[in-house]
Amino acid sequence: MAYKHNSASGKVTSADPLSAYNPGGLTQTKVKEASPIQFAQKPTPAGAMEKTLKDKKIALNQLRFGAADGLPVHLKLGRDRISFVFAMGLTTVGTIWSCYSLYKLSFKE
Predict the structure, then answer these.
(1) Is residue 108 part of a domain?
(2) How far apart are CA 75 and CA 71, in angstroms?
(3) Is the Mitochondrion keyword given for this protein (predicted)?
């Protein structure tokens, strides 16, 4: 048994299966086979691709950061070391300054 919504009365009524599954007079269509993909160029195998400069740079960075030299990753490059030392110096100066200020404020002169 198949049912279909009757838009005139607003009720669900019984209907023949063909009209229930194809509402509004729609008809079933045949599924077409997809045409084969046509490439503008022939695809090359993955191993045959030429390494670009970016690929070489990535491989070099992987070797550099993966080396077991005992340094943490954030200190592997020279410029990272300079910024790390600068930040630690500022932190030390700030800590000493805040301790001095607290000492100065805690005692009357």
Answers:
(1) yes
(2) 6
(3) yes
